[in-house]
Amino acid sequence: MMRFLKILLALLLLSSCAKQGFPSGGPKDETPPVAVGTQPTNGSRNFDGNQFYIEFDEYVVLKDASNNVLVSPPLKHKAEYTTKGKGVLVKLNDTLLPDATYLFQFKDAIADFNEGNLLPSYEYVFSTGTTMDTLMMGGHVTDARGGKPWKETVTVVAYDTTASDTAALEGQPRFVTRCDKRGHFSFHNLPGGSYRIVAFEDKNRNLRLDNDEPVAWLDKPLTTVDSIDTNRTATLRISAPEKKQQRLMKGEFTEKGRIIVVTQLPMQQPQVSGEAVEWRLNPRRDTLTLWCLNPNCDSTRLILRDEGLNDTLNLRYRAQKPKRNSHFGNTNATTAQPLMRALCSGNSAFYDDLRLSFRTPIAKMADSAQAEILNLKDSTLSLCPLTLDSNRMQARLTTTLQSGVEYRVRLHSGLFTDLYGNTTDSLTFSLTPRDYGTLTLHIENLTGTDLVIEVLDKRDTVVQSSKLQAPNSELRFSHLVGGDYRLRAVLDRNNDGRWTPGDYRAQRQPEETILFDKTLQLREKWEMEERWTVGKPATTPVKGKRLNFQNRLNGNPSELRSIK
């Protein structure tokens, strides 16, 4: 008994020791570094050196400083940024302009050493003359179509009014800054005057607008002020440019006998010559799928002609390496896709046609081809005729279905024969059609411009759109799943039935959009009606604050001590 008690006591002691651990160390430090001093003093005049130093309250690291530090006026040769002690040393490799105010904006370029907490922004300013420029300009950049802040980093540049209308394509700007996450931007420490403003995604950080970069600009110069109220600033509407030059993007065998060709823009009337092929154009008209009449063809020479295209394609099939199963080390066999499959599912509306899709063009359909449709609710069986579409890549089953009733559809084998002589296998699938909602809009157009009305889902994706045919019209949107929707009107100034982005070279702003002032909650089986009087687009103020030289970012530069 005594021996048992000794063993039990030893186990309890071991358990107690096991529960002990190291202290947690307290809450995680999430405070960014704080600047405690500079040399020379931030805000110095008569600056004639070639470097400056910023000291922080802890050790720091630099994050892509060459791209994340913006300098106004821009330097011809980039400065060098290194860490030294608890600070950052900046060496200047340029001859500075006389009587000029230089502003260094550190945008997410500095983080603390231990936790990596980023300093969102820090500014260092000096003047090479006896006076310091202190004026400002500001605004915000929004998505021209959706009205929200642009999703990518936006650089904003300023040019003298003597610069050309397309100065962003040509040379270095006078001043530069960058938008924050809300789309706000502000220029600080400017001399008095007015400037041309351009904002764009500077993807290669060359401070010059390239042809494929989204861009926004102001039609009129912006004038400097003493302080900025971000609720009362200019709005630039940014959009990605349209791709105007047609070119071949891709041409390749996807398997023996099957080729895809992709172009940058929709094709108009494509012509294909070379070896015997049959081809189909997708609904967007930017992808050709071609089938060689020899199903084992593994090399060919084709010529594609269309508006803006005259390309010769020398193609060879290259078999893809089989993927290995990481668990068993053997190769996975490739399963051939069926010749026929159903396009309808449980999400189909009860009034939709049932459709079948074919992998290769169909050459022949059996006489009196039918599908068997079994109503699983009352076990009634009906026969539905099949109709082959004109492109011979789909077939339609026209029948009457009930919402919420489960059906089983069966097609016998051999109903369709493709261009290679292959016949379809039997196919059986089930579906339960559902009710969708319908939205009817009564639109009164007071804009004086043609309108396109877009229906947006909760992700701001356009699910349906329709052109308004008259100033007072009724539009009906069917087949809408239950959910929340927004409405957007596009002022279709070029009358092409869609939203058109801006063209900086032509100095044509993107088409304006107007949002309906409420969210529509549509449910299945509902028929909702709404009235909308579309007037002049209203500018929605973006929540902001007033900035001036004394309270921007890091406080008054004179409050930071000079490092002796």
What would the keywords be for this entry?
seven-stranded antiparallel β-sheet, about 5% helix, about 575 residues, five-stranded mixed β-sheet, 5 domains, Immunoglobulin-like
How much strand content do the residues show? 35-45%
Give the number of helices.
Answer: 2
Strand runs, count: 43
CATH architecture of the largest domain: Sandwich
Main sheet: which strands, in order across?
25-26-30-29-28-31-33
Number of domains: 5
CATH topology name of the largest domain? Immunoglobulin-like
CATH superfamily of the largest domain: Carboxypeptidase-like, regulatory domain
What does this protein look like?
This protein has 564 residues and is mainly beta. The chain has five domains: 35-127, Sandwich (Immunoglobulin-like); 135-238, Immunoglobulin-like; 248-316, Immunoglobulin-like (Sandwich), CATH 2.60.40; 340-431, Immunoglobulin-like, CATH 2.60.40.1220; 437-534, Sandwich (Immunoglobulin-like), CATH 2.60.40.10. It is built from two helices and 43 strands. A seven-stranded antiparallel beta sheet has the order 25-26-30-29-28-31-33, with no helix packed on it. Strands 5-6-2-1-43 form a five-stranded mixed beta sheet, with no helix packed on it. Strands 10, 11, 13, 14 and 15 form a five-stranded antiparallel beta sheet that branches. It is elongated. It starts with a helix and ends with a strand.
Topology summary:
Layout: H1 2-19, E1 35-39, E2 51-56, E3 60-62, H2 65-68, E4 69-72, E5 80-84, E6 87-91, E7 101-112, E8 118-127, E9 135-143, E10 155-160, E11 175-178, E12 184-190, E13 194-200, E14 215-217, E15 222-223, E16 227-229, E17 234-238, E18 248-255, E19 258-263, E20 271-274, E21 277-281, E22 287-292, E23 299-306, E24 309-316, E25 340-342, E26 354-358, E27 362-365, E28 370-375, E29 380-388, E30 394-397, E31 407-411, E32 416-418, E33 427-431, E34 437-445, E35 451-456, E36 462-467, E37 472-480, E38 483-491, E39 513-515, E40 520-522, E41 527-534, E42 546-548, E43 561-562
Parallel strand pairs: 1-43, 9-17, 34-41
Antiparallel strand pairs: 1-2, 2-6, 3-7, 4-7, 5-6, 7-8, 9-12, 10-11, 10-13, 13-14, 13-15, 16-42, 18-19, 19-22, 20-23, 21-22, 23-24, 25-26, 26-30, 27-32, 28-29, 28-31, 29-30, 31-33, 34-37, 35-36, 35-38, 38-39, 38-40
